[in-house]
Specification:
heterodimer, A: 287 residues, mainly alpha, MetI-like fold, globular, B: 364 residues, alpha+beta, Rossmann fold, OB fold (Dihydrolipoamide Acetyltransferase, E2P), 2 domains, six-stranded mixed β-sheet, five-stranded antiparallel β-sheet, elongated
Chain lengths: 287, 364
């Protein structure tokens, strides 16, 4: 007997199938990564006009570092990301626990509403938040008689509120998954050993869902850093984040500097994803 | 005055929606007793245990621990501990931290906790495992740690939910004896849930047999085995021959029944029967004896002629199917004390005998 590896030996169809599979893989990766590779490559291109390769340079990165506007934008982006992540992680975790562990009126309705920010288009969310802020800020300015310079305007605060609004859903979904995977016997065992509900939560549930909470927080952080549409509609003077800054520059002229900024943002996002994967994997092996 | 039981259920019923998991159960477990709840899966035995632990509240009826009603108490205020079927060891804590958890909740001092944890680990013969995480232990070791985590609190009652179910056969047998020995040493009341009849027979002081949420019989292993209250108990525990029969006469605990066309059998009967009625005759296969045809049987035994239909050699014993008359067949297990040449062959005519007390009339 001669051995063969899998399938019908010598089948023409099978050989063609395998070739097509390889071609499929090649094109998938090509369309996904070719633009990114070009972007990264041209961030090192020593030419103002990006169409031709004119030698290696780091000067666009240098220009990027020197730009005050970019520094401010990075600071704003990080500030918005940290604050909105902190708030949405706490609120999202609490929401997840409420949804998983408690029965209350309209729970199912609330369940559906919770997923809304994830599925509705960004632009719809952005316009609704814009309408909400202009209405509520106007109302508050009227109420407190604020005018001119002292009037409340959209800015970083409104951006943070907007980011919290969509991030709560993402955090809640991730945390819910880890809560659902948690063996209910752990809780019962803790109570059986004399722990009340609060101690059970603090000593048993919270440590066990921490990988999920961290994963949710990192996701929220990444989404906040990368968000353009919602930020664009809800920001105001002095509230320029990095994606907004990049967009502003593109409207003026396409400069290789933007390639450099984008490459850095790409690296930062990738790093966050790797860290979040690592945190979650470590969490799951220790359980 | 009535005895104060360690655990008592009075007319306890538990419903989940339309489904009745536990039907009007009353039960008392003595102090220091090893009590098993035995039944097939879904019979309500685990629900019973969970109500005693406090994870479920009875729909009606009351549960007493040491004479005090506890239905309103949350699990963390009851002086009982549970060994869970899947052990439920906290994966993020070390073995020592797991065992110390209950003592910490009681607010004991650090030195006292350290000493009692060490004692408990010693008791389950894993003294050096304190620094390990649960996932570094084998199934049998996890089982012991779950036990240590419960007994370290010196509860009034220890509840065990099929704690040996996940172990392989050999380990299970060893743990059965170990658990029984531990219970004797500690003097703690054990309520043990199992679907394994052999396990229940080996370990228990008393057994409660459950089916479809009802408690069918409570008794010592011998009582349950030798005097099953009904067909389900007789069938669930050990092997039994069931023969449809007709009770013709009943005096005290002795009944005369007719099996098949013309076999009259004297049998034991727990309930008084007036007039004729249909019933089931139950005889354990090992209580039936076989002799060469024409033999008078053992002393005090009733003898019937029969024919070997089937003989299967099974090592320590041989399993025979014997026909008394067309349509009336009995399974007989006979120990292989004789040489192979002296065993009965298929087709051979034999004398079948048993003591009347071994044949029991079960009324449906």
């Amino acid at each position: 007997m001669t051995g063969h590896r899998g399938g019908i030996p010598g089948s023409k169809l099978l050989r063609w199938g395998k070739r097509l599979l390889w071609a499929n893989m090649f094109f998938s990766f090509f369309f996904l990564y070719a633009p990114i590779i070009i972007l990264v490559a041209f961030s090192f291109n020593d030419s103002r006009l990006g169409a031709r390769w004119a030698g290696f340079t780091l000067k666009w990165y240098g220009q990027m570092m020197e730009s005050e506007a970019i520094r401010v934008a990075v600071r704003n982006s990080l500030f918005v990301a940290f604050v909105s992540t902190a708030i949405s992680t706490v609120l999202g975790t609490m929401t997840a626990i409420a949804m998983e562990r408690f029965r209350f009126p309209f729970r199912r309705t609330y369940d559906g509403i919770l997923y809304l920010p994830v599925i509705i288009p960004d632009i719809v969310m952005a316009i609704s938040l814009l309408a909400f802020f202009s209405l509520s800020l106007g109302w508050m300015n009227n109420l407190f008689g604020l005018q001119g310079n002292s009037a409340l305007r959209p800015g970083l605060t409104t951006v943070i509120i907007a980011h919290v609004a969509f991030n709560i859903s993402f955090v809640a979904i991730v945390v819910r998954t880890s809560l659902r995977e948690l063996d209910p016997n752990f809780e019962e065992a803790a109570q059986d050993l004399g722990a009340n509900e609060w101690i059970t939560f603090r000593r048993i549930i919270l440590p066990l869902i921490t990988p999920g909470i961290l994963g949710g927080a990192l996701l929220a952080f990444t989404l906040s850093l990368d968000d353009f549409v919602i930020t664009f509609f809800t920001t105001g003077p002095g509230g320029t984040t990095l994606p907004i800054e990049v967009f502003g520059r593109i409207r003026r002229s396409i400069s290789p500097e933007i390639n450099a900024i984008s490459t850095v943002m790409l690296l930062a996002s990738m790093l966050l994803v790797v860290v979040s994967q690592f945190v979650q994997r470590r969490g799951s092996t220790s359980v | 005055m009535a005895e104060i039981y360690d655990v008592e259920l009075r007319n306890v019923t538990k419903k989940f929606g339309d489904f009745t998991a536990v039907k009007d159960i009353s039960l008392g477990v003595h102090k220091g007793e090893f009590f098993s709840l035995l039944g097939p899966s879904g019979c309500g035995k685990t629900t019973n245990l969970r109500m005693i632990a406090g994870f479920e509240a009875p729909t009606s009826g009351e549960i007493f621990l040491d004479g005090q009603p506890v239905s309103q108490l949350p699990p963390f205020k009851r002086n009982v501990n549970t060994v869970f079927q899947n052990y439920a060891l906290f994966p993020h804590l070390t073995v020592a931290e797991n065992v110390a958890f209950g003592l910490e909740m009681k607010g004991l001092g650090k030195d006292e906790i350290r000493k009692r944890v060490a004692d408990a680990l010693e008791m389950v013969r894993l003294p050096d495992s304190g620094a390990k995480k649960p996932h570094q232990l084998s199934g049998g070791q996890r089982q012991r740690i779950a036990l240590a985590r419960a007994i370290v609190n010196r509860p009034q009652v220890l509840l065990l939910d099929e704690p040996l179910g996940a172990l392989d056969l050999k380990l299970r047998k060893a743990m059965q004896l170990e658990l029984k020995e531990l219970q004797r040493q500690l003097g703690i009341t054990f309520v043990f849930v199992t679907h394994d009849q052999e396990e229940a027979l080996v370990m228990s002081d008393r057994i409660g047999v459950m089916n479809h949420g009802e408690l069918l019989q409570v008794g010592t292993p011998e009582e349950i085995y030798d005097r099953p209250a009904n067909r389900f108990v007789a069938d669930f525990i050990g092997d039994t021959n069931f023969l449809p029969c007709r009770v013709t006469e009943c005096q005290g605990e002795v009944a005369w029944v007719q099996v098949g066309q013309g076999i009259r059998v004297k049998a034991a009967c727990d309930q008084a029967v007036s007039g004729e009625r249909q019933a089931t005759l139950a005889i354990r296969p090992e209580k039936i004896h076989l002799h060469p045809a024409g033999s008078a049987g053992g002393q005090g035994e009733d003898v019937f002629p029969g024919r070997i239909e089937e003989a299967v050699f099974m090592g320590t014993d041989t399993r025979y199917v014997v026909e008394l008359e067309p349509g009336v067949q009995l399974v007989v297990r006979y120990q292989n004390v004789n040489a192979a040449t002296e065993r009965f062959r298929e087709g051979e005519t034999v004398a079948v005998s048993w003591r009347p007390i071994s044949a029991r009339v079960l009324l449906s």
